[in-house]
Design goal:
With about 850 residues, the chain is an alpha+beta fold. The protein contains 26 helices and 24 strands. Helix 5 crosses helix 13, helix 22 runs parallel beside helix 25 and helix 24 runs antiparallel to helix 25. The longest helix is centred in the first third of the chain and has 38 residues.
């Protein structure tokens, strides 16, 4: 049976090959007879009919006209596909260049769309997410401007006074780090403290068990926890009986009441569990540690909710609130959205430049196919029939390029995941799926239609008499095709200029960002995080004793110059901010000063290499029993104690009824704690011995070129003090600085790659047009040389053509860039969106590249032999 099937397939194959050979033989004789008839002076139509009659073609046409139109159309489509495939196969050089060009554009487009799909288009794992909003205070300088953290007092006031929300919840901005003791070694896990109605406000349902109830928020209630899907699988092997089990977190017992679905990772991707926060009525407004989340009532708009919230009054300040209310999607996507959309625009420009290049290739190739198209027209093919055939070839090219581009996109996605910073939301969901595959197919078809339409329309207008009579003489382009080729090159250049200027602005911005002074010397500095939790560290004296012992032990290690601990670490670790007043000065409740609250050990500033501007820093005498002292940063001194010596001034961190007064003993230079690109905020430093903190960073200044070489020895000292303490985030300070600019580095790197690709494609386009023009004008150049033109004149003639196109494209591109780069303002640091230097440098770069691309064919034109050129004509 199998042998019969194979024989039948072979018979069909040989039959189809025989039909193709017969078709080619008939076509050859038809073409020859039509040429002879036209040469005898017979018109094209009469010549075609005469040739058809000699081969019995007229009767065949009449028979086909009686067939079903749909069947004939499908047969013609199949014939177009077969013929288009043969034509591409017969021109492997052209096909390879076109496919690779398209694959680069489509592959880059697909890879970036996979990011857009995962980050921006995937639905949020909440019920009716369009009704969810995030709420912060507005205008607090210490908490980051429009996204200042809420204190508990404001949250309680908001709950009591609001009429626009059906549910109001919150979560702590500061992730809680627990020591999980349940495996072979202690492990650090990140948790978020949330209000009891946090999950119900979001409309998020657990995969197992339940979420929090109102009783869980009550003071003194049993401690319960909801765990993530990842934590459940990692530590409990996805055991469905996990509900009700107790786990040890930092020495305390928590009962597991629920497991969340895998897609739920709010408010941060690395959160592994959620605990129920217990809200108690505060005796003062601060500290500021919460982000609000609320669900709008049905029918209430965002504008109405904002107006109502800003009419509320604070129970402490007595003035109206100034809330900032944003849709929850803006919070989740955050700064990633404009950067991702910019990258999508960049790869779209690359794809359009690639399409323009292929269109130019097709226009050039059309010149060599003029005779073929003319014969098809002479045989009766309509203009639409010719256009359809040529569009079929373009779509085949695009689909092949799209298939190769999809393969490149798989590799591109892997590269993106390696380059992408960890703080891009929903990063783990990036990949090639059905939607991305459909996007690739759509982009491929649209690209094939776009770059194939103009060449098809231009080629479908052959001059039959001129084309069929020209004999062996080389075909030349008309003004229409030359105009289209020039227009395509100008378009390529304009798009390349826009993309290059965008990349130039980002490079300039990133260069300036990397040169921001963090306020410390990051060299030869080792850092790691150590959480002190559990009954062993219940008292402040126990905490201070551990820090003292640890620092002394670490300082005795070979190669260690200094060591310190702190609850904050530059350039982007600052978990706490609080309000304060300056003793003896009136307080405006609408302008309550807020500063970063930083606790440090005595040698903190020396270990980091911070600058002391006035007074002194801490020493061993600033112990828990000594008078309370404080060091402030330069920004706090300038903003709140201007034109005065701050040394000796007293700051109250409590209330009038319960004051907590600290004397300023020194002023240090500003240190970045909110990122290199953020404004430096007021900060005050307190001795950790006088105001303990249970989760700290250990900072070690070493003499070694690679501080990580000391990490094992430092770990051993920590274990010798407490074997159950997990040590995390072991990195050098230089690594932390590098990681802090991961997002701008990511978008700058990708944009620069796309811009370089666009520049290469645009230069290839210029080279192709000028090179083809030189070939077409060989006879003209030969005549000029024969009449006495010098090589320099020929060089000027050719280069002038290329530079004219370049200057036109440059002018259009610069105009478009001035109009569009203002959309990038939020992505830039220290540079204007219309930075003149960037515009000038990019313009010169493009002109130099275009000049080099035009010089290659120009040098070939200088070598044209007039005798050969005239003999060829």
């Amino acid at each position: 049976m199998l042998n019969k099937f194979r024989l039948r397939l072979r018979a069909l194959f040989f039959k189809s090959r025989l039909e193709e050979e017969l078709d080619e033989e008939v076509r050859f004789h038809l073409e020859r007879e039509i040429e002879e008839n036209i040469a005898r002076g017979i018109g094209p139509e009469e010549a075609r009919m005469a040739a058809l009659r000699s081969f019995g073609g007229v009767e065949r046409v009449k028979e086909e006209s009686r067939d079903e139109r749909g069947v004939r159309f499908l047969e013609e489509v199949w014939q177009d596909l077969r013929y288009g495939g043969r034509m591409l196969w017969k021109n492997p050089g052209f096909t390879l260049v076109a496919v690779i060009t398209l694959a680069l554009g489509i592959g880059a487009n697909t890879a970036i769309f996979s990011v857009v799909n995962a980050v921006l288009l995937r639905p949020l794992p909440f019920a009716e997410p369009e009704r969810l909003v995030m709420v912060w205070l507005k205008g607090s300088e210490a908490a980051g401007g429009d996204r200042a953290s809420l204190p508990v007092a404001d949250l309680l006031d908001w709950r009591a006074q609001n009429r626009s929300f059906e549910s109001v919840g919150a979560f702590r901005n500061i992730a809680i780090a627990y020591n999980y003791i349940g495996g072979e070694s202690p492990e650090r896990v990140r948790a978020t403290g949330v209000t009891a109605n946090f999950f119900t406000t979001l409309g998020a349902q657990p995969a197992l068990g339940r979420t929090f109830q109102s009783d869980d928020e009550r003071s003194g209630a049993q401690q319960v926890v909801v765990i993530s899907q990842q934590f459940w699988r990692k530590h409990f092997a996805a055991d469905p009986q996990v509900i009700g089990r107790s786990i040890n977190l930092s020495g305390a017992s928590f009962t597991i009441v629920g497991v969340m679905p895998e897609a739920f990772d709010y408010p941060a991707r690395d959160v592994e569990m959620w605990t129920a926060g217990q809200l108690q009525a505060p005796n003062r407004r601060g500290p500021f540690v919460l982000s609000g989340v609320a669900r709008l009532k049905s029918g209430v708009t965002l504008a109405q909710a904002r107006a109502e919230m800003n009419s509320m009054k604070s129970s402490f300040a007595g003035e109206k609130f100034d809330f900032n209310v944003l849709p929850i999607n803006e919070f989740i996507v955050g700064e990633a959205k404009p950067a991702i959309l910019m990258l999508l625009a960049a790869v779209t420009l690359v794809l359009l430049i690639a399409a323009a290049n292929v269109a130019n290739l097709l226009l050039a190739r059309a010149a060599s196919r003029e005779k073929e198209i003319a014969i098809r027209a002479a045989l009766g093919a309509s203009r639409w029939r010719v256009v359809r055939q040529l569009l079929t070839e373009s779509l085949l090219l695009a689909l092949i390029g799209g298939g190769l581009g999809l393969s490149l996109a798989w590799l591109g996605v892997d590269l993106l995941l390696k380059l992408a910073p960890e703080d891009i939301p929903r990063l783990q969901q990036i990949g090639i799926n059905g939607r991305v595959f459909g996007w690739t197919a759509l982009v491929s078809l649209l690209t094939g239609f776009v770059f194939g339409l103009v060449p098809a329309l231009q080629s479908a207008r052959p001059n039959l008499n001129a084309t069929l009579k020209e004999g062996r003489r080389g075909a030349t382009d008309g003004a229409g095709k030359r105009g289209w080729r020039n227009l395509l090159v100008i378009s390529e250049l304009a798009m390349a200029v826009t993309l290059l200027i965008g990349a130039g602005l980002l490079l300039n911005s990133f260069w300036r960002l990397q040169r921001v002074d963090p306020g410390v010397d990051p060299r030869q500095t080792l850092t790691m995080q150590i959480p002190l939790q559990g009954p062993r560290y219940a008292q402040a004296q126990q905490v201070n004793a551990f820090y003292d012992q640890l620092i002394e032990r670490v300082k005795t290690l070979p190669g260690v110059r200094a060591a310190a601990v702190s609850n904050s670490l530059p350039p982007d670790e600052q978990p706490w901010s609080d309000d304060f007043t300056i003793e003896g000065r009136p307080v405006d409740p609408r302008e309550t000063p807020i500063a970063n609250d930083i606790r440090v050990s005595p040698e903190y500033f020396q270990t980091l290499g911070a600058r002391l501007l006035r007074g002194r820093t801490f020493n061993s005498t600033d112990s828990g029993n000594a008078p309370q002292v404080m060091v402030i940063n330069d920004t706090l001194a300038r903003r709140h104690i201007p034109h005065e010596d701050p040394i000796g001034k007293r700051i109250n961190r409590g209330t009038e009824s319960e004051p907590s007064v600290w004397e300023i003993i020194g002023v240090v230079g500003d240190i970045k704690y909110k990122g290199l690109g953020a404004e430096t905020l007021p900060a005050f430093y307190q001795p950790i011995a006088q105001n303990p903190w249970w989760g700290v960073f250990l900072i070690v200044k070493t003499e070694a070129a690679d501080p990580l070489g000391l990490a094992a020895a430092v770990r051993n000292e920590i274990r010798s003090l407490d074997r159950e303490l997990p040590v995390t985030q072991v990195r050098t300070l230089e690594q932390r600085l590098y990681a802090s600019v991961a997002q701008p580095r990511f978008r700058t790197t990708l944009t620069a790659i796309f811009a370089a690709l666009a520049l290469i494609l645009a230069s290839v386009g210029i080279y192709g047009v000028i090179s083809y023009s030189v070939t077409q004008r060989a006879h003209e150049i030969g005549v000029r040389v024969a009449l006495g033109a010098r090589s320099r004149d020929v060089l000027t003639l050719v280069v002038k053509q290329g530079m004219t196109l370049t200057l036109i494209g440059l002018g259009i591109g610069l105009s478009a860039s001035i109009a569009l780069t203002h959309l990038m303002k939020t992505l830039l640091f220290g540079v204007s969106a219309t930075d003149p230097l960037t515009f000038i440098v990019i313009s010169l770069l493009l002109m130099v590249v275009a000049l080099l691309a035009a010089l290659v064919p120009a040098r070939r034109a200088m070598k044209v032999d007039p005798m050969v050129a005239l003999r060829f004509e």
